[in-house]
Task: inverse folding
């Protein structure tokens, strides 16, 4: 489905947010204010004019698309039944991990020993679970929100504790790009709550950085896990599928 009208709406909202009116925009584009109004009412823009408006806003066209995707209705949580499906099917869980990290099907097939039919099977299943929308030519549109969470003590969290947590924390954390920070002391309830809010802030920063790094080449991004510790690491069951 064409998304240009929604992109224009997002552009209009960004102009409003930055306090730029039609008259100022007309001056920037060397057009009349009436022409600008007609462009927005008809939602008919050339790519050249879109680029010029994005330049005024300090944005790339891809930034507009990202803002549009962030504003669209997306799911915050799976059902318990769908979490069970993920942990009972390792290839499905692997593909789910990849698509939530914004990999393409080509990326997945290049790195892992999955056949194309098997990968498509997993993508179709994720589409039915509303994690993604599978588009023509096996393109992938992610449907989970930035606030997405697994069920507390649900199938995914229990799987993580049983299969992942101990192996991840058993690393030496000796590299420059690794950190395991352990502090021991006495704290009041107020101080504990302050630290919890700071830790949530770090989680928010992690999400912001993963979104920003989508612009990086696939070869420049690495599977990275953080549980109050951080290192380059991949679940052993996933590593078994690597080429």
Result:
């Amino acid at each position: 489905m064409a998304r240009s009208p929604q992109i224009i709406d997002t552009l209009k909202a960004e102009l409003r947010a930055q306090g730029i009116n039609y008259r100022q925009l007309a001056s920037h584009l060397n057009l009349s204010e009436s022409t600008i109004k007609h462009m927005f009412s008809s939602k008919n823009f050339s790519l050249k004019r879109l680029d010029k408006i994005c330049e005024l806003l300090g944005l790339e066209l891809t930034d507009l698309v990202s803002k549009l995707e962030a504003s669209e209705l997306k799911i915050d949580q799976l059902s318990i039944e769908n979490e069970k499906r993920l942990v009972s099917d390792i290839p499905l869980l692997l593909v789910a991990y990849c698509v939530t990290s914004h990999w393409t099907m080509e990326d997945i097939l290049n790195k892992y020993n999955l056949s194309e039919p098997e990968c498509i099977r997993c993508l179709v299943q994720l589409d039915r679970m509303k994690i993604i929308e599978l588009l023509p030519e096996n393109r992938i549109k992610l449907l989970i929100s930035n606030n997405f969470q697994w069920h507390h003590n649900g199938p995914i969290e229990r799987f993580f504790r049983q299969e992942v947590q101990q192996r991840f924390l058993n690393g030496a954390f000796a590299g420059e790009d690794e950190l395991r920070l352990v502090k021991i002391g006495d704290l009041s309830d107020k101080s504990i709550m302050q630290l919890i809010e700071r830790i949530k802030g770090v989680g928010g920063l992690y999400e912001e950085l993963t979104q920003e790094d989508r612009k990086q080449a696939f070869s420049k991004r690495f599977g990275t896990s953080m549980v109050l510790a951080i290192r380059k690491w991949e679940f052993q069951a996933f590593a078994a599928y690597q080429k």
